[in-house]
Amino acid sequence: MKIKIYYHHTDCGQVVYYAKYLEFLEEARTEFFEEKGISIKELTKQGILFVVARQEIDYKAPAFYGDTLSIDTRVTEVGRVKIDFIYEIKNQNNQIVSTARTVIVCVDCNFKPQAISEGIRKKFIYGVGKYKALS
Questions:
Q1: What whole-number distance in Å separates Cα of residue 45 and Cα of residue 57?
Q2: CA distance 90 to 51
Q3: Catalytic one among 11, 67, 72, 84?
Q4: What is the mean pLDDT of each run of 10 residues along the chain (135 residues)?
Q5: Cα distance between residue 62 and residue 34, in whole Å
Q6: Measured between alpha carbons, how far is 56 from 27 in angstroms, rounded to an integer?
Q7: CATH number of the structural domain 2-133
Q8: What's the CA gap between 31 and 35, in Å, rounded?
Q9: What is the rounded distance in angstroms from the CA atom of residue 82 to the CA atom of residue 52?
């Protein structure tokens, strides 16, 4: 996914505000699911929700107003109730700006953990003891 950095993404120094990366990661996950044919909106209507259980971000270099960032999103593991995402965010010069990891958990409408459906699992390739993402 690509994102152009606008003024509202930045702090007073025209550097991307650190918390904005959370929004970028959310958008990248949504795009990832949609590319796999999975609609988060439709899952929600069915009472299948995904919530963030863990978030890690390493900031490697600043991104600035006017930059275009590329976000590479991958799934490293699909467990019974969780999906583990990793990201690499680069600027237009191919410099790594940030790396991140998000663990999301599948829950029902009462926010109780529930197993990820086989229909969703089929969007992934089975690896040794884990499901691996189609790239």
A1: 30
A2: 26
A3: 11
A4: 97 96 97 93 96 98 98 93 96 98 97 94 56 43
A5: 29
A6: 16
A7: 3.10.129.10
A8: 6
A9: 10
